[in-house]
Amino acid sequence: MTPEPGPQPVSVTVVRDGAVRAPGYRDGKAIVYDWAFPWNGVILQQRSFVLLDTGFQINQAVTFPEQQRGWWYCDLVRVTDEGDVVHVDDHWIDVIVGPPDHPYRVLDLDEYADAIAEGAIDTATGIDGLRRTQHFLDQHLNRRHDTRRDIWPDFPPRAITNLAQLPPATFP
Question: What is the pLDDT of residues 14-53, one digit of tens each?
């Protein structure tokens, strides 16, 4: 007996930081989208994934230097999910993830604190962001009692496996 295929990814539009509109796909608790931006006089293409359960956006940054190709840049984001349109806004905290034998780096906690202090985000949102960051780290990267250093617990996240195989989406 042949197993039934799972649900197919559905098309979405991602609005990144209120400025970039990009076509993408949703599959369960993750979204993939491809977008372009200017960099040193050329237009670069970037593929990004949004983890809806933790509110983190991850990508293998095309602007990383050659020795860091394949490393991941992860952003805490505010996600506003309207079904076929998903708004993703950067919320300062970043995590850089290299090979499993390297430590990950958490960046910009000072900028996050400044955003709270200046009222750019309220205290409840700030607390939520810190909790989501800890959840992301615990779920995907932290090795509480695991002594293995050749793999991350769940990184890149299994939730993006199917989406990573898809070709870039296009607007209809």
Answer: 999 999 999 999 999 999 999 999 999 999 999 999 999 9
State how far the Cα of 31 lies from the Cα of 65, in Å rounded to an integer: 26
Please tell me the pTM assigned to this model. 0.92
Ordered DSSP codes for 97-150 = E--TTS--EEE-HHHHHHHHHTTSS-HHHHHHHHHHHHHHHHHHT--SS----S
Q: Give the three-class secondary structure for 67.
A: helix
Domains of the chain, earliest start first: 10-143+151-164 (2.40.380.10)
10: closest CA among 34, 36, 28, 37? 28
